[in-house]
Specification:
Blueprint: H1 4-24, H2 33-39, H3 41-57, H4 63-75, E1 78-79, E2 84-85, E3 90-91, E4 98-99, E5 104-105, E6 110-111, E7 116-118, E8 130-131, E9 136-137, E10 142-144, E11 148-149, E12 154-155, E13 160-161, E14 170-172, E15 177-179, H5 199-222
Parallel strand pairs: 1-4, 2-5, 3-6, 4-7, 5-8, 6-9, 7-10, 8-11, 9-12, 10-13, 12-14
Antiparallel strand pairs: 14-15
Helix pairs in contact: 1-3, 3-4
Length: about 250
């Protein structure tokens, strides 16, 4: 059962979870630890999970799942008691977050609202994602299957990821496309969601340039000059400096 060593470990984990909220949530600046414990649903959900996970590991029946469901009702965050979560885990806002049974989460990971760490199909065994240390996952992103998201990786909002993500890589789109941000590793949490690369837009731009080149060649062969070349404009040009300092 719970001993002094277990109690000390849990207290240390809770302190680090609260410190993570202070460090990564601007709204928590100036808030006391007691306020965060009583008012931040992401912190409450993680605290409840740590208790439920400990009970699950000891083989206690019924109580871990019951505690998980109570936490889900209270916070809007569903974490299976068997999921493994490291220290410094922070869920910002948190509504709609789902973390499956065989999910493994490393240290100092950040998730935003609507994130799903889910499985695919009805297979047994390892079927949920593994997130290594310092991973950041944007709002609404879906990570499905027994994939691994490498150290320091960043998943853009509403991305759907079904393949492994290399370390220090940004993934955007549906299905997710791995890209690098200016070729520089990003040590998390990186919360700049404005200056994300867009590989689909880049591909369309290259295709448009190729079409313009071919149209010019056809015009030269026909002995006429092109009157107008269509311009490709970004749908949402990023402006201003990166809030993450990147």
């Amino acid at each position: 059962m719970f001993g002094l060593g277990t109690l000390s470990r849990v207290v240390g984990e809770v302190r680090r979870d609260v410190a993570a909220a202070h460090a990564r949530d601007p709204a928590a600046r100036g808030a006391g630890s007691g306020e965060i414990l009583t008012s931040w649903p992401g912190v409450q959900a993680v605290l409840a999970h740590r208790v439920a996970h400990g009970l699950h590991a000891m083989g206690v029946p019924l109580l871990p799942r019951t505690l998980s469901m109570v936490s889900r009702t209270w916070t809007g965050i569903e974490i299976h008691p068997a999921a493994t979560i490291g220290q410094g885990f922070f869920i910002d806002h948190g509504a709609g977050v789902v973390i499956g049974e065989t999910a493994e989460i490393g240290n100092d990971v950040t998730l935003y609202q609507g994130v799903t760490l889910g499985g695919t199909g009805f297979q047994t065994g390892k079927r949920h994602p593994t997130l290594e240390d310092n991973v950041t996952v944007g709002a609404g992103a879906k990570l499905l299957g027994a994939i691994t998201v490498g150290h320091g990786a960043k998943v853009g909002a509403n991305s759907v990821v079904i393949n492994d993500v290399p370390p220090n890589t940004t993934v955007v789109g549906n299905p997710g496309h791995p890209v690098r941000v200016e070729g520089k590793p990003v040590e998390g949490p990186d919360t700049d969601w404005i200056h994300l690369p867009d590989p689909i837009a880049d591909a369309i731009t290259r295709l448009s340039a190729r079409i313009a080149e071919l149209e010019g060649e056809v015009s030269r062969l026909a002995g006429s000059e092109r009157e107008h070349v269509a311009e490709v404009r970004p749908l949402r040009p990023a402006q201003g400096p990166s809030p993450a300092g990147g």
